[in-house]
Write a sequence for this structure.
């Protein structure tokens, strides 16, 4: 699978460990930065990650920051992306199965490496269920107007 990964400065170490693990697992990984602990703005890296997932360059993405919250908000600004902030594997699987999430967000200050790996493993191995969930996912991309809601 083609996976894009990006972080802010707070999650550089977790990003590096997850990048190496994803490659060991056989995935093609695009590391979108940053490469140092110098302070950066998470929206810049979240927007870049969202672009490569939305345009199909990557099949899915892993977004990381200190809490996972800021970068998940940035990623979700792109209408072609559904980013889920995750802290355990069941939510990761349900985000894929029910919501067709294509980006997972994790907090480096809140999630250890083993839990992060378990979450990503559940995320990349769980297919979207479709069916009744497709109608709901379609509404995320094309919300009904206030008059018809």
């Amino acid at each position: 699978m083609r996976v894009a990964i990006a972080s802010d400065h707070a999650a550089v170490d977790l990003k590096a460990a997850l990048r190496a693990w994803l490659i060991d697992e056989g995935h093609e990984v695009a590391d979108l930065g940053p490469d140092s602990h110098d302070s950066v703005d998470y929206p810049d890296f979240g927007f870049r990650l969202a672009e490569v997932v939305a345009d199909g360059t990557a099949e899915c993405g892993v977004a990381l920051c200190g809490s996972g919250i800021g970068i998940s908000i940035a990623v979700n600004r792109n209408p072609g992306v559904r980013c889920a902030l995750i802290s355990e594997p069941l939510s990761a699987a349900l985000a894929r199965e029910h919501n067709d999430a294509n980006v997972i967000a994790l907090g480096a200050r809140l999630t250890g490496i083993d839990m992060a790996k378990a979450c990503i493993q559940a995320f990349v191995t769980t297919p979207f269920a479709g069916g009744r969930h497709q109608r709901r996912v379609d509404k995320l991309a094309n919300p009904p107007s206030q008059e018809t809601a």
Summary: DSSP finds six helices and five strands in the chain.
